[in-house]
């Protein structure tokens, strides 16, 4: 069932549409992650859903009910922001109990529920600790416990792991995903970090200049970016203009085979690094750099024609910087995009 529905939502500041006619649905128990560069309108979209930002046009529906005129505290949504906004003068238990009081309206201490929530986020027994004594990751968990406390029907996260270091982020994101799926929480999250979005979300929504550039499962978006913008945002650099016909594309790198059924004509072409394959003969290249990535080696190549190419190879087969190599292209890793 659809929990959240945005219909033609726009937010204008003066002449500028920061959110531009956005349609979006989030089903119950779904985790949707809005992804996009800085300034693309992600936070504004969250603020609209929370009721913190009025719309210039369009409707926000929660559980089928139009939220026009419904104040923040009556929407039943939970919010967790990047800077966690914990109360520094309250201990951990006090912060989590605040979340519970938001729901209950009472002044109780909610000891049992606080203990249960802290258990849930992996901080059992931390009730009495001072907020200032917690690490960044621990503060994040407390903020999450507080946001989950009133059992919001929709939990919204704005750059939830933004300030944490990469290792901690990667661990927490996996934990969060497990936790949300156990609790059946519906989540709308915003991040500019594609790794985080792909690890957390069941569906990602890529935004550009206030509009949705692409929406789909992480796999769909990764395998079939809808445009050069999305491809580059995902970190793919091998994108060139191409003329496609008869199963091949003519590019600055020469002729590149494309998947069967690809659109023809003047296009852009993406070759994922895994599709640039070292071979005995092919496009001649010089190796500019090689970077060990754990499961493979990333190569930056200077071809004899065309812009630099990113490639991937196994550690055992990796050439050295300065080596001359030849590459061919694997059509399974090639995507024909609309023209730039
Ligand atoms: N109250 C406001 N008045 C005028 N402009 C605003 C206001 N709030 C946001 N903006 C502008 O709207 C644009 C989108 O902002 P928003 O914070 O939604 O983007 P974002 O995608 O979340 O970016 P970031 O990742 O940097 O947080 C920005 O250019 C911002 O400067």
Protein described:
- By secondary structure, this protein is an alpha+beta fold.
- It has two domains: 2-229, P-loop containing nucleotide triphosphate hydrolases (Rossmann fold), CATH 3.40.50; 239-337, no CATH class.
- It contains eight helices and 20 strands.
- The chain has helices spanning 42-50, 92-104, 111-120, 136-148, 166-183, 194-200, 218-223, 228-233; strands spanning 2-13, 16-27, 31-35, 57-62, 65-66, 77-80, 154-158, 187-191, 203-208, 211-216, 239-245, 248-251, 254-257, 265-271, 276-279, 283-292, 297-303, 309-313, 324-329, 334-337.
- A six-stranded mixed sheet has the order 6-7-8-3-9-10, sandwiched between helices. It has a five-stranded antiparallel sheet with strand order 13-12-11-14-20. It has a five-stranded antiparallel sheet with strand order 15-19-16-17-18, with no helix packed on it.
- Helix 2 (92-104) packs across helix 3, helix 2 packs parallel to helix 4 and helix 3 (111-120) crosses helix 4 (136-148).
- The protein starts with a strand and ends with a strand.
- The model has no long low-confidence stretch (mean pLDDT 91).
- Residues 13, 18, 36, 38-44, 192 line the site of adenosine-5'-triphosphate.
- It comes from Streptomyces goshikiensis.
- Keywords: ATP-binding, Nucleotide-binding, Transport.
- InterPro entries: AAA+_ATPase (IPR003593), ABC_SmlMolc_Importer (IPR050093), ABC_transporter-like_ATP-bd (IPR003439), ABC_transporter-like_CS (IPR017871), Mo/tungstate-bd_C_term_dom (IPR008995), P-loop_NTPase (IPR027417), Transp-assoc_OB_typ2 (IPR013611).
- Residues 4-234 form the ABC transporter domain.
- Pfam families: ABC_tran (PF00005), TOBE_2 (PF08402).
